[in-house]
Structure prediction request, 131 residues.
Amino acid sequence: MALQISTDKNNLSTTKVSSTNPISTTHPVSGSTVPLTLYLWNDDATKKYTGITIDPVDTTGSDESSWIALAPDNAGNAGTYLAGSAALSMADINDSNVAHAFWYQCTTPTLTDSQNKTDIQLNVSFTEFAV
Prediction:
């Protein structure tokens, strides 16, 4: 298929992010920040990928993609987070079924009422090559 995002490095294929298994954060306090480790992986041993970027995009209505900040992984910890909505560049992926960690942080603004935000997605761009 292509590059995939997963929420669990030990179960890449069963925790693959999709419309039925979205990335989800819960913010019990208005104006809070919740970080997650996510994993980019190649599910096809006949392909390799270069020029990889991950870009938070709001798909409908007003643009709240700035709520999402991405960071590279630094030995199991978040590296420096980029500005909200900025695209993260990833190293080339030349292997398959190996988790390549990155960090996702959702910061909600101070709100007066509860809200479910379901239209922010991560777009993954890349150049694909046959191995």
